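Input (structure):
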């Protein structure tokens, strides 16, 4: 079942979006889009609104930046974050049924959203529809099956991430996204890796909240016991104290154009 973003989950995600690692991902996305003053841009699955706020700064008062999400709690955070930016609009909308006319945008971003969508081709077609000819798209997806983690119990770790897989329809989407973009009619498709690496388990790093979320999801789904969840996190804390903590996951940035 997909992850549900209630107020608590939304706040947790908001904290993770403030980590240096995710800020680096946002910069890579903005570099790929190359927004200019006066352009119209949108962030599909805007979450707490960090990226759409930065988009607004790039397009300026003459432009338009739209944040799109379906979670009321995420939309509330994004609205609060962009309340002083008149060029921003926050919209409750489904990616498969976007309430915009054809060619409404110069650029679109989509981060960690497509893995939750069953009909990827329909989603890409809808994004292509609302782009102008020559419009750009930047998509970030993560290969959660390629996580590198220094944990004592490999079997328990595999069970943890198997439960995490169940939260997504396409947990290894990066392997299939380039041909999907080409099939949807995009051109100039390029991809680059944006790795997230943590060598400590501090609360200011991305992996702390992320791995605690993995443990909580596996525990909630009955894949592991309460004691196993506690032991797993305790092991990571021990590794951290010993200077032996290591976490890495690869995010991939796909860029393309509408001809």
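Output (sequence):
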């Amino acid at each position: 079942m997909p992850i549900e973003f209630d107020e608590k989950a939304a706040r947790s995600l908001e904290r993770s979006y403030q980590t240096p690692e995710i800020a680096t991902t946002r910069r890579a996305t903005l570099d790929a889009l190359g927004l200019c003053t006066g352009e119209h841009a949108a962030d599909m699955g805007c979450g707490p609104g960090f990226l759409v706020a930065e988009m607004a700064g790039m397009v300026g008062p003459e432009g338009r930046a739209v944040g799109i999400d379906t979670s009321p709690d995420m939309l509330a955070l994004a609205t609060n974050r962009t309340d002083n930016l008149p060029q921003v609009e926050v919209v409750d909308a489904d990616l498969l049924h976007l309430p915009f006319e054809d060619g409404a945008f110069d650029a679109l971003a989509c981060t960690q959203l497509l893995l939750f969508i069953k009909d990827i081709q329909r989603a890409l077609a809808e994004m292509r529809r609302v782009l102008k000819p020559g419009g750009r798209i930047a998509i970030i997806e993560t290969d959660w099956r390629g996580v590198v983690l220094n944990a004592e119990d490999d079997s328990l770790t595999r069970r943890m991430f198997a439960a995490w897989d169940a939260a997504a329809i396409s947990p290894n989407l990066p392997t299939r996204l380039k041909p999907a973009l080409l099939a949807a009619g995009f051109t100039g498709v390029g991809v680059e890796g944006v790795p997230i690496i943590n060598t400590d388990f501090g609360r200011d790093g991305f992996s702390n909240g992320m791995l605690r979320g993995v443990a909580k999801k596996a525990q909630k789904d009955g894949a592991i016991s309460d004691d196993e969840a506690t032991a797993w996190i305790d092991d990571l804390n021990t590794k951290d104290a010993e200077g032996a903590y290591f976490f890495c996951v690869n995010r991939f940035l796909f860029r393309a154009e509408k001809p």
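Notes: The chain is about 40% helix and 25% strand. Residues 51 and 141 are 15 Å apart (CA to CA).
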